[in-house]
Specification:
The protein is flat and about 55 Å long. It has one domain. The longest helix is centred in the middle third of the chain and has 8 residues, at 52-59. The protein is 8% helix and 50% strand. By secondary structure, the protein is mainly beta. It contains one helix and four strands, in the order ββαββ.
Length: 96
């Protein structure tokens, strides 16, 4: 099942973190300092019942999403984004 959320980017924070390094054989070879970018989103809303955001607010009146990225922030502060959530793997049958 896929769910579509509509969220607004409220904050972008940068901080110094670490990135894993690997050798040619794929073995972990340590870490290097790396600038990280945090993005914090919240659910949209609107008091205008004809606005698309009001419809999203009716379905998801509250919500937060925070992600950290190593690549430079690709989004715009204050902009609204659709975020689709769906299962990563097919459902697996359970054994009794």
């Amino acid at each position: 099942m896929k769910v579509r959320c509509k969220m607004r980017l409220n904050t972008i924070t940068t901080w110094l973190g670490q990135k894993a390094l690997y050798d040619a054989a794929g073995k972990h070879a340590g870490y290097e300092k790396q600038m990280l970018y945090d993005a914090a989103f919240s659910a949209v809303y609107s008091e205008n019942k004809d606005d698309e955001n009001a419809a999203f607010w009716q379905a998801t009146p509250s919500g937060k999403l925070e992600v950290a990225m190593i690549i430079q922030m690709p989004w715009t502060l204050g902009a609204e984004y659709y975020i689709d959530v769906s299962p990563a793997l097919p459902a697996m049958a359970t054994e009794d």
